[in-house]
Amino acid sequence: MLALLPVERGSGVSLHRQIYEGLRRSILDGLLHAGQRVPSTRDLAAGLHVSRFPVLTAYEQLLHEGYLEGRVGSGTFVAAALPDDALRAASPPAPERRPPASAAPQPRDEGGLRPFRVSLPALDEFPHAAWARLVARHARRLAPEHMAYGDPAGLAPLREAIAEHLRTARAVRCQADAVLIVSGSQAALRLCAAVLLGRGDRVAVEEPGYPGARAALGTSGAELVPVPVDDQGVDVGALHALGARVRAACVTPSHQYPLGVSMSAARRLELLEWAEGQDAWLLEDDYDSEYRYVSRPLGALQGLGTAARVIYIGTFSKVLFPAVRVGYLVVPPGLWDDFLAAREALDLFSPTLYQLVLADFLAEGHFGRHLRRMRAVYLRRRQALLDGLARHCGGVLAVHNADAGLHVATLLPEGVDDVEVVRRMAERGLAGTALSTCYAGEARRSGLLLGFGGSDEGTLAAATQTLGEILRGVE
Ligand SMILES: Cc1ncc(COP(=O)(O)O)c(C=O)c1O
């Protein structure tokens, strides 16, 4: 092994890079064969007379890239199945002077368009003709006022159309003057953090929950307090146990992210009562509530009670497409001025062209038609996924919840590392999210979130077959 790694100090190439390249080359050239155990980082460092750090960094990168795999408690091995693109790139580039790869920012990869990518709608079913007509209509003759600075609250006709949709489809209590247009729900959560939270405040987040919400709320310097979720939604008893000083709780009542449960009516009322008693705000992230397969869509939490304690957040990312980057808040009256000022401070206003297009898309009925059509599409895709899971992954993967939204929450047997499964899925061209990554604290469950929105039935059937093969390899 040491003979394969002629490490040279002062060569201008970092030690970790030399070790990484040497191991990678030996694997690709077949000098180290699939399944072969490699020395521990400690032993290799001792053998090479280097510190352990460059060896650890090299191993980490090789693990990340799929050349090596770790088995808990039994060491590190050459991967059984090498990533295809690694084999294609079998000739390594000449060593270069670069900062250690582990220190360079990793490109963000949440699955792109790959099967099982969560939060991806059916882009192949998008009504391009109607959309293109509206884009062309407005782009062709943009009025000067639509080219100048826009209203930070958003375009009036779009706010009207959204308020109408929310009242009828989501049972939200609102008028257009409470609707604030922003660039997606992520921006809405950022805004809530800016307006409602300060350093040292406490904000409750669901556990497990949406990592993006934690990232947005954390920007305020507030302390994030994870609160467990059970089969009725967030545990309000646990919220009470936190005592006073909790300024807000961020919840996904229609379709809990990631586990999928819908908050029961009793729990919703308890939650509203808690917020009232604590003088706390409820941030309702209603990110994909329009699709529910086991009953009619549930009304929003905001529509219960007086709505004065709830900041409702919605988005077009799942019902149209994420790149449209339009979301909105329904702001309680007493907070409007603060939210508007914060929105203006953030980025003034949202691009007017897409707001014009969206306003017409909603007002002319395209949106309603699209939602109805997509419900049928997603029902079929969801069924294809469930059928495929039953056929290929039964006995290993248990479906936890498939009631709503664009992903199915599944559980892996105890002891199976979901991050490792997702890594192997990526090697085979699949996406998916490891449930354990949704925990702020120690992960209590291991599982896979499998998106079905973005792939047709045939693709999902094939993807579940591949997933079954992967799961049989990690059992
Ligand atoms: C629970 C949840 N909230 C918010 C978002 C962010 O959506 P947007 O694209 O509107 O920022 C997502 C996206 O996946 C999500 O899953």
Please, could you describe this protein's structure?
This protein is an alpha/beta fold and 475 residues long. It is built from 15 helices and 15 strands. The strands form 3 sheets. It has an 8-stranded mixed β-sheet, with helices on both faces. Strands 12-13-15-14 form a 4-stranded antiparallel β-sheet, covered by helices on one side. Helix 1 crosses helix 3 (52-65), helix 2 (41-48) crosses helix 3 (52-65) and helix 6 crosses helix 12. The longest helix has 28 residues, at 366-393. The radius of gyration is 25 Å and the shape is globular. The protein binds pyridoxal-5'-phosphate. Pyridoxal-5'-phosphate binds next to helix 7.
Q: Which key terms come to mind for this protein?
A:
single chain; 475 residues; alpha/beta; eight-stranded mixed sheet; four-stranded antiparallel sheet; binds pyridoxal-5'-phosphate
